[in-house]
Amino acid sequence: MSNNVMPNASVADMPDRSLLMDRSVPGRKAINLPAPDVPLSDMPDDGLLRESDYLRLPEVSQLDVIRYFTLLSRLNFSIDTNFYPLGSCTMKYNPKLNDQIASLGGFANIHPLQDDAGVQGALGVMFELQQWLGEATGLPGVGLAPLAGAQGEYAGLLIARAALNMRGESDRDVALIPDSAHGTNPASAAMAGLSVVTVKTDEFGNVDVDDLRAKADENTCVFMLTIPSTLGLFEPNIIEINRIIHDAGGLVYADGANLNALLGLVKLGDLGVDICHSNLHKTFSTPHGGGGPGAGPVMVTEDLASYLPEPVVIKNDDGSLQLGRPGNSIGKINGFHGSFSILVRAYTYMQSLGGDGLRAVSENAVINANYVQARLCDRFDLAVDRVCMHETVLSGKRQADRGVPALSIAKRLLDYGIHAPTMYFPLIVPEALMVEPTETESKETLDRFVEVMQAIDDEIDSDPDSVNHAPHTLPNTRLDEATAARRPVLRWQG
Amino acid sequence: MYPDDLKYSSEHEWARVGNGAVVEVGITHYAQDTLGDVVFVELPEIGSRVDQFDKIGEIESVKAVSDLFSPVSGTVTAVNEELEQSPELCNSDPYGDGWIMEVKLDDPSELDELMDSETYQGTLE
Amino acid sequence: MLATIGADQFDELITDIPEEHRNPPLRLPDSASELEVTSRMQALAALNQDAGTRPSFLGGGAYRHFIPATVGAVLQRGEFVTSYTPYQPEAAQGVLQSGFEFQSAVAQIFDMEVANAGMYDGPTAFAEAGLMAARVSRRNRILILDTADRRLFEVAEAYTRYQQVEVEAISRERVMNGDIPNDAACIAFQSPNFLGRIEDVQALTDAAHDVGALSVMHTYPIALGMFKPPGAFGVDIATAEGQPLGVPLTFGGAYVGLFTTKQRYIRQLPGRIIGKTTDTMGRTGYTLTLQTREQHIRRERATSNICTSTQLIGLMVAVYCATMGPSGLRQVAELSYHKAHYLANAIDALPSWKVIRAEGSTFFNEFPVQCPIAPAEVNRRLAERGIIGGLDVGHLVPNGMLFCATEMNSRSEADRLIASLKDMGYGAAG
Prior knowledge:
The complex is a heterotrimer.
Chain A lengths: L1 H4 L56 H12 L22 H7 L2 H4 L11 H18 L3 E3 L5 H18 L7 E5 L5 H8 L3 E5 L9 H7 L4 E7 L11 H10 L3 E5 L19 E3 L2 H4 L14 E3 L11 E4 L5 E4 L15 H37 L4 E2 L9 E4 L1 H5 L4 H10 L6 E2 L8 E4 L7 H20 L1 H5 L12 H6 L8
Parallel strand pairs in A: 2-3, 2-4, 4-5, 5-6
Antiparallel strand pairs in A: 1-7, 6-7, 8-9, 10-11, 11-13, 12-13
Chain B lengths: L6 E2 L4 E5 L4 E6 L1 H7 L2 E4 L7 E2 L4 E7 L3 E5 L4 E6 L2 H4 L3 H4 L8 E5 L11 H7 L2
Antiparallel strand pairs in B: 1-2, 2-3, 3-9, 4-6, 5-8, 6-7, 8-9
Chain C lengths: L1 H4 L28 H13 L22 H7 L2 H4 L11 H18 L3 E2 L6 H16 L3 E5 L4 H11 L5 E5 L1 H5 L7 E7 L10 H10 L3 E6 L17 E5 L15 E5 L12 E5 L5 E5 L6 H4 L12 H38 L5 E2 L10 E5 L4 H10 L6 E2 L7 E5 L6 H19 L1
Parallel strand pairs in C: 2-3, 2-4, 4-5, 5-6
Antiparallel strand pairs in C: 1-7, 6-7, 8-9, 10-11, 11-13, 12-13
Helix pairs in contact in C: 3-11, 5-11, 6-7, 11-13
């Protein structure tokens, strides 16, 4: 056991990563609970009761718990510690004020089924957030219930189907989706019983309007458009596209994953979009939490507002607020009222920034992305050579020809303390490296990123092997994902 | 890499005609190389009917999934249960231990719809 | 920076936006300082009746349980809070290993073979369980026992509306008599059910299996600290709202859905799954696995469109379970049981208030009461006395109110409630 007493150069070098159950000592406790202060009632029949010896949770001290999870936290990249040029994911700074406000007792300790009269402050947050999101998107009907972007998408599609049903057009069962779309679009469409017809992207990175025109017909339910697109481009033909869909009798759904490029620059509703969602954990700075929770409010035109999911917050004549169900509501899509703790954060963020601040968010996001694109375009091919919005898609084709795929460039960035860009997406770009710097990063950070990308490009000539085996400095080298999937081990095994 | 004694489909399956009317089926070197590390093979049921060029199951790698198609019509007489534990056999030995199923042929003339090794390799270029 | 880009002014970067729609007015408030925002938000928070500072007897799907300080302490770690979904496993071992702890703890509590990394919330987990049962059984009728929370029905209906899957209610009598359609994908039930009663899980599960359907159970994880877990009955898929395990009420979200099943169904699971593996140097590490089920690979044929695992809330659950340990979880369950039974007995002793009991059934920590006056009025009067009352279940029981107690309700809180109800009872009688 000599390595247990060897000094480590740093914690990350050789931490003891054994699982909590492997640290468990029978009888050890991390917490005391009070003794019962009421007379004990008869226990139920033994047949209903759990046999005590097979609840195998860790038995550890409180210090063990804290030290263990603190250790784990240090094995992570995070916004608080690293730059994440992660395309389509909008990994920007999450202001600490928002977390603090969400933890106030008046927000954190209210029960979702309390009478409306006792939660007027919470309803006030939701009501005003509905109004503000409606104003920011130009789509005034706002439902806050969806718990993530994918749920917002699904809600949007249910709304489209319900509205068309009401018009007697329930047989419209096709979702038109560009080939550059995120995987949730077709997955949500399938959940909503729609068959997916793919629309091509033209050589400029725009929707192929002729292809769209040929495919929009009496079966079209919705066109699902990500705007700006996953190529980071604003669709210049959007007015015509929306007209084509409307003329065919369908509705236009905008995937608002990239709304952070549009605040104050354009409103989706003004362009003829009928429905959109917004990922509050992207555009409105709520933390990603290592994979959720998110929030995905859905915004619609006034005509569609009666279809919103339950509940929405309604203002009564006397100024009081209440939770209500819109007349033609698609119903409940989750247990309660949405990711309230996330809604509070987004509301706090919007309040801090105000209208001008939100516009500055988009402006700076666009400038930062174009700056990175301009500085890297000599070394890396661009998916499309034109001005981008909030993100730029590079192609590592030249690097791949020299023996290093996009994956390895991304992994090598980790060694420099920079998170990998989004890779191999959108699917239509070979060796894609999608870079979204976000508005909260300084020029100095962007310059360092550019220098690191240049350095890696040099390493491809000087030491390609090292790049292809990156990362070298993280808690793990590349992991054997094939064995993980072939012989899955999904829990502690004693 | 593409044995001469096999017949090939455009969906990258091979068929080996054995004694009598039973044909062994698997995926080609090209298919396993394109998929990468195979992690799961959804096998058809023994006794089930398959039709030529129809979907019989799925094959998954770490980050891709493809349909499996039968190169012939007939009845499934055996499946390679080794693949449940060791799907990587499709990568390491696609024409041998990585076989997928055996089919009792309905109509041997269907084999004429398949390609020989040279023609198949021509389609890969 | 604009010079590097080659633009003179910003507007040159957004010429793709139709000019007539560019730069619209934004009718939003002006920016505000941190100090101003804080005081405004504190004022809004103060308008809410905070269940952290007054007695509450409200349950019905979200529960006020004790949250140890360790949970909040770990949640202060920005390395967890501001991390991304672990697509780059080498840079996310903290998220992945803690998620593996979550899966391990949930699987243990449920005594099920596997758990996924988390769903949005309990009802969506339950809806996805019904859909998964349909995929596994290749049948299309999801039968939900009519004693389940109607939220579970509503969400399941919304999730299956266009999927050629029917969601129907079924009575216990029909299930026990074997009067089950032969295209049933599953018998899905809630235990403890909406009124807090423990269902006969074994009989329901056997009845499902007898017709080739799956048994799907939605449960309350704290109850599993003392009651037999789903795995002990052969349940095929078990789900729950994870909130009671260390997550504050926060007006209904964000929560985490718990989702467990048997090993042989793992390729039909929705959501993220974390697996253990090794790196190129042979060291243990963790990674997202079985990803081909998911939307980013299988697109329209994915098992679900879900992308999140609600990881941060799952982390709270993992820290909670590590802190409570087996004895802590059992104690919390037993305290909740005894407090609720004390309260039920005391209410039953009041003139004109009646606890509605079902013959031969056991309840955990919630029970329905028939009130002498309208439940809404009861709650209004309790609110005046600084007490958050129970849940109006007048649609199920005439003048019915569902009361809940947990380890958080001290005896003196219960006695205060009893005194208040007693006054109202006299008022009604007089």
